[in-house]
């Protein structure tokens, strides 16, 4: 019998579900912000903005900086590597930029995780980075009981193409590019309700896919806001988009797409310590339910996504002008709501 474990065996809460709750992060940052006495006019966006990347003015262009790493949500180490890389470069694409170079961040216990498993993780990640000509130039690896993998990425963006996550306008449409429910599938895998072979090839392709479509969106001035859907769930990332409190969102659940099987699995595989409950608690004051919603759908709205799709706001005219071209590139594109003047509420209908 092999001495090595399946990589999910030591994963306490996989993927972006292992994020510290945003309420805790907010408290920590509010208590430490004053200690940062360095002022640099070239820093366009920092941690205070809760955006996808830090942005630095490098003259003709902006440099983009982001870091993402997490524990496994699948047992296949190659797929885990693909997810780690795709998720890391996603923040660059969500800012409208192009990834340039990457440093890897890795942790594992060599007595539990084999060199072959680690090799497959790296090869999976490299297959993604190769698509975008991103060089992995270094990294840091430590011993840890829970496997972790991810990257720190440097990218660039033309100044007029930079997209932020909190610049939506009243009247804009809210659009997402992929189904949600990755966290539910990960929970189902972890507790053994399903096997990876139960996940269809088309679903696996979407889950491990990339958000390079953000580069296309950055070309349109009609796209007012852009982010990716990750650990804080769909509701959490919508909340960030209306975080200034001057807009409401009319969210149409009938327009949402969920990964196959996730509605039937959601309640059964969601444990009390799930990131779903942390997200529900954090964003409860932001949500108003206009119609009865099943518990499964409520869980899916708050489900932490690993390498989730993009979420963007665009004028109705801009969407109609670009609809055909955008849907050719992104067939799962769906209008899920509209923004109105308001007080920061997400009205779920």
From TrEMBL:
Q: Which GO terms describe its cellular component?
A: cytoplasm
Matching InterPro entries: PurM-like_C_dom (IPR010918), PurM-like_C_sf (IPR036676), PurM-like_N (IPR016188), PurM-like_N_sf (IPR036921), SPS/SelD (IPR004536)
Tell me which species this is from.
Pseudomonas gingeri
State if NAD is listed as a keyword: no
Any idea what this protein is called?
Selenide, water dikinase SelD
GO-annotated molecular function: ATP binding; selenide, water dikinase activity
Q: Which residues form the PurM-like C-terminal domain?
A: 169-344
Ranges of residues in domain PurM-like N-terminal: 51-157
């Amino acid at each position: 019998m092999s001495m090595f474990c399946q990589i999910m065996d030591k994963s306490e809460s996989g993927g972006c579900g292992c994020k510290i709750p945003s309420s805790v992060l907010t408290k920590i940052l509010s208590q430490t912000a004053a200690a940062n006495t360095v002022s640099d006019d070239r820093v366009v966006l920092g941690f205070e903005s809760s955006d996808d990347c830090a942005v630095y003015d490098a003259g003709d262009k902006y440099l983009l900086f982001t870091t993402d790493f997490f524990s496994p949500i699948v047992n296949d180490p190659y797929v885990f590597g693909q997810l780690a890389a795709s998720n890391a470069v996603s923040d660059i694409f969500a800012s409208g930029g192009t990834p340039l170079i990457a440093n890897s961040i890795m942790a594992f216990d060599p007595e539990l995780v084999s060199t072959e498993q680690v090799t497959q993780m790296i090869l999976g990640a490299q297959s993604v980075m190769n698509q975008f000509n991103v060089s992995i130039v270094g990294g840091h690896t430590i011993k840890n009981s829970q496997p972790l993998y991810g990257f720190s990425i440097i990218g660039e963006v033309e100044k007029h193409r930079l997209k932020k996550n909190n610049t939506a306008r009243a009247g804009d449409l809210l659009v997402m590019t992929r189904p949600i429910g990755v966290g539910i599938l990960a929970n189902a895998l972890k507790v053994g309700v399903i096997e990876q072979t139960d996940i269809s090839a088309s679903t696996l392709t979407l889950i491990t896919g990339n958000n390079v479509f953000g580069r296309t969106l950055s070309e349109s001035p009609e796209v007012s806001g852009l982010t990716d859907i990750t650990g804080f769930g769909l509701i959490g990332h919508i909340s960030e988009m209306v975080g200034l409190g001057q807009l409401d969102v009319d969210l149409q659940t009938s327009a949402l797409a969920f990964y196959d099987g996730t509605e039937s699995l959601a309640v059964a595989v969601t444990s009390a310590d799930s990131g779903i409950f942390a997200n529900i608690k954090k964003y409860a004051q932001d949500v108003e339910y206009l119609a009865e919603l099943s518990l499964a759908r409520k869980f899916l709205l708050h489900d932490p996504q690993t390498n989730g799709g993009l979420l963007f706001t665009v004028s109705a005219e801009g969407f109609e002008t670009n609809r055909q071209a955008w849907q050719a590139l992104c067939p799962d594109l769906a209008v899920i709501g509209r923004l109105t003047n308001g007080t920061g509420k997400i009205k779920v209908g």
